[in-house]
Design goal:
single chain; 209 residues; mainly beta; Protocatechuate 3,4-Dioxygenase, subunit A; five-stranded mixed beta sheet; binds fe (ii) ion
Length: 209
């Protein structure tokens, strides 16, 4: 089923996303993969990063839902796309041996996970809002989630998703600011209340080139 601009706008409105406007519906910008894509993948690799299999405690931090639709440039849903995310835990630390951050790591946070889009191109993750982390003395990365979207026989898309409520750090982030200003909203989500589980939800539609 193809999705029209009108349907996308309508859907955005229903989700309370009044900011979703036509210029947003362009190709999702690529961003650097960064140094913390897993070398060793966690044994638990589902789309709920808040629980690690066989552990008794849930991850620390605010649990959130990130969901959206993977679409072609013509707004056709992409089914069976592999969507991977990886991110720091609540304290801003990656489960990665090269992360120099001294913040305590949360052993109950999965750190990486993946899912496939369904027949209408939708994906969902349950995760926590990551902490920001220092890169240099005067550069702190804003909370963000890394995304990799893979479709067989096509180039993959690697990008990062930011949070509208972190505007101060977003505006100073060297990586986000590499994206032209009029396209930055494509990779910034607004967390809104509205999940059945009473979690805040961030919508992130991914438009492939
Ligand atoms: Fe990162």
């Amino acid at each position: 089923m193809s999705i029209t601009r009108r349907q996308i706008l309508k859907q955005g409105k229903m989700l309370g996303m009044g900011f979703l406007t036509w210029p947003l519906m362009t190709i999702t910008p690529q961003q650097t993969q960064g140094p913390f894509y897993p070398i060793i993948f966690p044994l638990d690799e589902d789309n709920d990063l808040t629980w690690v299999k066989d552990r008794k405690k849930q991850a620390l931090g605010e649990k959130i839902i990130i969901r959206g639709q993977v679409l072609t440039a013509n707004y056709k849903p992409v089914k069976n796309a592999k969507v991977e995310i990886w991110q720091a835990c609540y304290s801003g630390r990656y489960n990665h041996e090269y992360d120099p951050n001294q913040a305590a790591i949360d052993p109950n946070f999965q750190g990486w996970g993946w899912t496939n889009t369904n027949s209408e191109g939708y994906y969902t993750f349950k995760t926590i809002k990551p902490g920001g982390y220092p890169v240099t003395n005067d550069w702190k990365r804003p909370p963000h989630i890394h995304f990799k979207i893979t479709i067989p026989r096509q180039t993959e898309l690697i990008t990062q998703l930011y949070f509208a409520e972190e505007q101060e750090l977003n505006q100073k982030d060297i990586i986000l600011q590499r994206i032209p200003r009029n396209k930055q909203d494509l990779v910034i989500t607004k967390l809104i209340q509205g999940d059945a589980l009473n979690l805040r939800v961030g919508q992130f539609n991914i438009i492939l080139s």
